[in-house]
From TrEMBL:
Residues 24-277 form the EAL domain. The chain holds residues 486 to 776 of 778 of the full protein. It comes from Shewanella yunxiaonensis. This is EAL domain-containing protein.
Length: 291
């Protein structure tokens, strides 16, 4: 009967569900080992000005599993959030970024501000700010070396709570960016009342540049709104010269994307630091064909 069919239809186990269940088991047992067995690394992606000057970088977590290969943070971060492992993981990220900053400074590199992603779930814990500031002070890294990236999901939390946390970070010298801007819930009045440094336009908008007047208008609007609020605008996921040129024309301040550089391992990143600038990939390709 129809009733039976509809009852059955939502307990059908698709291969997809099975895959997800086994993936969860894999993550559960393996993520803890990953930390102990040195399978995690931080890669750094340059943030540049329109002419390629390297002015900041984003720290992105990488997991190389000995059997399963590369596992994307987009996959295991949400899992870690659900399973209470995010604090341990994040503590490792913060510590490793601080270790890198100290190392690089000791070797004479001018290290720009490094951005660290923090999940809303973790940020919402009452003691997040104090324990973060405590950690970096113990590791002797200046708060002005760091920026935190938070997504709009955070803005679902009561304004006064976020406000006081942001202000504490800001007073200490930590910059704050709203990541993946435009994809989530965002109240303009929230943005106005928070001590933010940057809005990062989500890459889904950037990748639609040139595909239609409406897509282009969204970006133009985000940029002018951000500037009205005196925030810096960073475009993420810039892959083509066409996207870059459009973004420069709209007045976008900072750029991040494969056009300049993928996230790279420490050794490669310090080379970029000593060069001080990153040449767009297409310019390199053009040069090669000229030769
Ligand atoms: P996100 O913070 O928005 O980071 C930007 C993502 O875009 C990164 O993906 C980066 O590799 C990718 N990307 C950069 N430029 C381009 C481009 O030109 N084209 C394309 N297609 N992609 C580009 P990734 O590294 O896979 O990270 C995915 C997400 O995982 C991050 O998004 C962030 O939300 C989360 N994540 C990564 N590391 C951490 C971490 O240490 N802690 C937390 N809580 N989340 C993290
Ligand atoms: Mg980010
Ligand atoms: Mg983003
Ligand atoms: Mg993202």
């Amino acid at each position: 009967t129809a009733k039976e069919i509809s009852r059955d239809s939502y307990i059908v186990y698709t291969p997809d569900l099975e895959q997800r269940a086994s993936k969860n088991l894999l993550l559960q047992s393996e993520l803890r080992n990953a930390l102990k067995q040195d399978q995690l690394a931080i890669h750094y992606q340059p943030v540049v000005t329109g002419d390629g000057k390297l002015v900041a970088a984003e720290a992105l977590l990488r997991w190389y599993h000995p059997e399963h290969g590369y596992i994307s943070p987009a996959e295991f971060i949400p899992y870690a959030e659900r399973n209470g492992f995010i604090n341990t993981l994040s503590e490792w990220v913060i510590t490793d970024v601080c270790r890198f900053i100290n190392d690089a400074i000791k070797h004479g590199y001018a290290v720009p501000r490094i951005s660290i992603n923090i999940s809303a779930k973790q940020f919402n814990q009452v003691d997040f700010v104090s324990s973060f500031l405590e950690t970096i002070s113990q590791l002797k890294v200046s708060a002005t070396q760091l920026q935190l990236e938070l997504t709009e999901h955070l803005l679902l939390t009561e304004l006064s709570i976020i406000q006081s946390k942001f202000e504490e970070l800001r007073r200490a010298g930590v910059a704050i960016a709203i990541d993946d801007f435009g994809t989530g819930y965002s109240s303009l009045s929230y943005l106005q009342h928070l001590p933010l440094a940057q809005l990062k336009i989500d890459q889904s908008f950037v990748q639609q540049i040139g595909c239609g007047a409406k897509d282009d208008a969204i970006i133009t609007t985000i940029v002018s709104m951000a500037h009205a609020l005196e925030l810096e605008v960073v475009a993420e996921g810039v892959e083509t010269l066409n996207q870059r040129n459009f973004l420069i024309n709209t007045g976008c301040d900072r750029f991040q994307g494969y056009l300049w550089s993928k996230p790279v391992a420490e050794a490669e990143f310090v080379e970029l630091l000593s060069a001080g600038a990153v040449i767009p990939a297409t310019a390199i390709a053009l040069k090669k064909t000229e030769q």
